[in-house]
Amino acid sequence: MTISARTVERVLRALRRALMVVFGIPILLGIVMSVVDSYRRRGKKPKPFPVTPPRTIDIADGTVTTYTYGKDLYADMLAAIEGAQKQVLFETYIWKGDAVGERFKAALGAAAERGVEVYCIYDGFANLVVSPRFKRFPATMKVLRYPVYGAGWRFFDLRRYGRDHRKILVVDDSEGYVGGYNVGSSYETEWRDTHVRITGPGVWDLTRAFADFWNLNRRHPIRANERPLLLETSSTWEPRIRFQRNLPRLWMFPIRSMYLEAINRSSRNVWMTHAYFIPDQDFVDALKDAARRGVDVRLLVPLKSNHIVADWISRGYFAQLLTAGVRIFRFRDAMVHAKTSTIDGSWTTVGTANVDRLSLQGNYEINVEIIDAAMAEVMEEIFRKDESHSLELTIGEWEARDLHRKFTENILAPLRPLL
Fold first, then answer.
1. Helices 281-292 and 254-265: crossing angle, nearest 10°?
2. Torsion angle (degrees, nearest 10) of CA 358, 213, 335, 202
3. CB 39 within 8 A of CB 219
4. Separation between Cα atoms, residue 237 and residue 63, nearest integer Å
5. Three-class secondary structure of residue 335 per DSSP
6. Of 224, 290, 387, 409, which residue has the fewest beta carbons closer than 10 angstroms?
7. What pTM was estimated for this model as a whole?
8. DSSP 56
């Protein structure tokens, strides 16, 4: 039987209309919501929020220091750069051209001028709105701008569409920083985030993570600024500190597996803090299963994040989680941007990966995984402090929400796989 051209045309037209309804309307609604939310936020400043002072613990031949306030973190990062003698490796997703951004740029430039090898990586797309003047760097600095579009003619190669969402600083192979903090004035005092400073053998793997990314993504091998970054240090294995890296180009995404394994092995508690929580169903099921077998599962998210659409989409999972016994806390008055979890008083992760598709199956990300009871105790203390500044969402409150809220959640649901 032959199918006429007119029939094919009708089928294609119907398919286009269906796609427009399924994806076009949610995307349009998301754009409108973002514009309205941006207008409402103009001139508003977050209120003060409690923070936990930096805490340092010993792990084998090194240390781990936690930071929950940007001013504390930036002071130590800048001091490390200013004291560098051999090499500085600096990588960030967002690098604002404001006062804080200028301080980092000046410190890195000064280090390069005095003979320190300075390597910098920043994401081109995330910094499109940053002034081109700010993005002009001294010739003494080696700078790699991760491209806005990296696929070239390989339009269908999904491995080349990930963003560089990592935040790394390594100085002289002796101290390394990793976590959720980008670089900018608002992050210094207005956002609640989490970063760690590592010394000792654990720094080596952070150095290697930076070098591997630089060598994988440099585009002009004949330019001095993009020559291979060769490592001279030999690796020393520290089994209690491990780095998990998502590498889209190599189609490697171990951070999701790391989370699922830790949650599935939990027996006492799973306490998670995430800026954007848009998991897949397997991830939701792992949390539900843990709660049903008696594990104390708690999820802390922003009451209102800087991405209103992500907030609405994440709420689509709340009914399942609350019904299973998961407790949900919403951090108020400020944006909580941390990506952390601690389980059973022994396992902790701090890093750059959100629990969403973009982070777990799309972007370049890095999380440190630490197996240490003292570190878990510190992270539980931080979680309790954040929880004291949060509103708990009850199943009764959730079921009693307005009809228009339920309608909006259902309309935006098709966007979940995209975020």
1. 20
2. 120
3. no
4. 15
5. strand
6. 224
7. 0.88
8. E
- Asked if residue 205 lies in contact with residue 242, where contact means CB atoms within 8 angstroms, the answer is yes
- Give the Cα separation of 336 and 406 in Å (integer): 24
What's the pLDDT at 232?
A: 66
Its CATH architecture, for the domain 250-418, is 2-Layer Sandwich (3.30)
The full length of the chain comes to 419
Note the pLDDT tens digit of each residue in 166-207. 999 999 999 999 999 999 999 999 999 999 999 998 899 999
Q: Which of 180, 215, 191, 200 is nearest to 367 (CA)?
A: 180
> pLDDT tens digits, residue range 329-347?
999 999 999 999 999 999 9
Dist CA 345 CA 59 (whole Å): 15
pLDDT reported for residue 415: 56
Tell me if 55-239 shares its fold with 250-418. yes
Which residue in 268, 286, 362 sits closest to 324, CA to CA? 286
Delimit the domains of the chain by residue range. 55-239, 250-418
What superfamily does domain 55-239 belong to in CATH?
Answer: Endonuclease Chain A (3.30.870.10)
Of 6-20, 63-77, 127-141, 356-370, the poorest mean pLDDT is in 6-20
Kindly tell me if the per-residue pLDDT of 401 is higher than 80.
no
Top mean-pLDDT range of 15-29, 185-199, 205-219? 185-199
Q: Is the pLDDT of residue 37 over 50?
A: no
How far lies 351's CA from each of 156, 298, 366, 401, in Å? 29, 19, 6, 33
Side-chain half-sphere exposure of 277, counting CA atoms within 13 A: 28
Residues 6+ apart with CB under 8 A from 205: 235, 241, 242, 243
d(CA 383, CA 259): 18
